[in-house]
Design goal:
It is built from 4 helices and 4 strands; from the N terminus they run αβαβαβαβ.
């Protein structure tokens, strides 16, 4: 009768570590997907009339007084780069503050249009 008890106990003892190991969570396989490419937006925060009179190539015009209402329509995300300009620097500074407070993390305020470097997208 002792051998009948020893064999089931031995099987339970051997199976316990296997069962415990099977219940352990496994590490997720590392992903090899490339990170999404960051976008860059050149944002002219002057009036539409000023924009029509002349602007930098590739710029999007969103007047500073409309920016808060149009944040969700911007073609970039909060982690993308936003480059700002206006006429004197006052409106672009207001826009930069607004964007940062809204969670945008890469905001560059160049102030007057003339100060925006030719390689602004870098």
């Amino acid at each position: 009768m002792r051998t009948h008890l020893v064999v089931p106990l031995l099987l339970v003892a051997l199976a316990s570590p296997l069962a415990a190991r099977a219940a352990e969570p496994t590490a997720a396989a590392p992903t090899t997907a490339a990170p999404a490419e960051r976008r860059v937006l050149l944002l002219d925060v002057r009036t539409p009339g000023e924009f029509t009179d002349g602007h930098l190539e590739g710029a999007l015009n969103v007047p500073v007084d409309e920016l808060a209402a149009k944040l969700s329509t911007l073609p970039v995300g909060k982690g993308d780069k936003v480059v700002l300009y206006c006429r004197s620097g006052r409106r672009s500074a207001i826009a930069a503050k607004l964007l940062r407070e809204a969670g945008f993390t890469d905001v560059t305020d160049h102030g007057p249009m003339e100060r925006v470097p030719k390689d602004w997208a870098k």
